[in-house]
Amino acid sequence: MSIRPVRRMIEAQPTVEGAGVKLRRAFGFGETDDTDPFLLFDDFRNDDPNDYRAGFPWHPHRGILHQEMSQGDAQGHMHGFPLWANLPSSLKPTMPRNQDVGARATSPTSPTTHAACPSSSSVLSKS
Length: 127
What we know:
mainly beta
């Protein structure tokens, strides 16, 4: 495995989407040269169902109408991270889908040592 240097750090910005879902957007709906093939990356984690229950009512993507109505867990907690990928032309007609990634499929990493951004993350990989 090779380790590449961090080119830049982006602080996710508070955003409201859909019918009032509060989330933080790391990138999306703008210049994607630095993130290609990824188009959008959001983080929504809420302990208050009122912050996400209204969801994302019926809306189109590439002419396909769909809705995303998050339910949260039994305690009302919700955590999701949509990552939109720009598919190759040959795969663009593929039906849209979501992939649930449970906690057991992620591996926590050590907190970063950068003083301005103390955090931890999970690494998702295909083996």
